[in-house]
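Tip: read the tokens left to right.
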């Protein structure tokens, strides 16, 4: 099932593709007070409204595809090296001014909400912008959005063939019309357990002002942060 989320910005259009291409099963449970049906298999600690807000769903367990890239500090890192900790994985554009900064805020809040459990969780993003591949690009984004305050944050980049292989292995669709165009990419958060298995996906989203600026209400940002923390804690 393909879910398309289009974001209109002033003077330009950014389109984010959210892909759920693995089977999902809705539980035959009564609707809650909000009329939302609860997806089966999500952690019991995540409420139905919160799971709905996040677009959270389980996926058939499989090994998370391995890759080796370089983070914002210039250190080589592989997915395999992260076994033993829960991984929250996203694909981001270091030149993005739309939804990626919102996801960044959610990651910062999630890290704070994890408290003492934060040491067992790693937050990872993979670069999707082929025109901004340098370590300096992902480092600048990390600083600008306070992600460097997270000891376990890694914004990974590398040579284009290595990135393209990683995108493909996670079914991430990436397209752009040139160096100054907005990147079109699949926007999905993957939750990977300490054994290195994909367990859940979530679908980030944004609201927009009349002028086209992306935002989320403070309460939604806080809820997203708590939701990410709850899912990650359930896997640790």
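Filled-in amino acids:
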């Amino acid at each position: 099932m393909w879910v398309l989320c289009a974001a209109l910005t002033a003077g330009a259009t950014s389109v984010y593709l959210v892909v759920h291409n693995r089977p999902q099963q809705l539980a035959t449970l009564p609707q809650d007070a909000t009329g939302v049906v609860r997806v089966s298999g999500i952690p019991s600690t995540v409420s139905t409204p919160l799971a709905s807000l996040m677009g959270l769903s389980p996926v058939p367990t499989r090994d998370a595809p391995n890759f080796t890239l370089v983070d914002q500090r210039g250190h080589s890192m592989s997915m395999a090296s992260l076994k033993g900790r829960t991984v929250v994985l996203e694909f981001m554009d270091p030149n993005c001014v739309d939804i990626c900064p919102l996801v960044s805020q959610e990651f910062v809040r999630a890290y704070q909400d994890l408290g003492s459990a934060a040491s067992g969780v790693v937050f990872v993003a993979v670069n999707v912008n082929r025109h901004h591949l340098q370590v300096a690009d992902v480092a600048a984004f990390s600083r600008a959005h306070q992600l460097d305050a997270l000891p376990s944050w890694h914004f990974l980049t590398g040579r284009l063939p290595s990135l393209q292989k990683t995108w493909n292995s996670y079914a991430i669709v990436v397209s752009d019309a040139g160096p100054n165009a907005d990147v079109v990419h699949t926007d999905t958060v993957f939750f990977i357990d300490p054994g290195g298995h994909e367990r859940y996906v979530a679908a980030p989203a944004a609201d927009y002002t009349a002028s086209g600026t992306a935002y989320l209400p403070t309460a939604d940002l806080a809820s997203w942060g708590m939701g990410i923390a709850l899912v990650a804690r359930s896997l640790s």
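The longest strand covers residues 2-9. Residues 2-235 form a domain with the Glutaredoxin fold (CATH 3.40.30.10).
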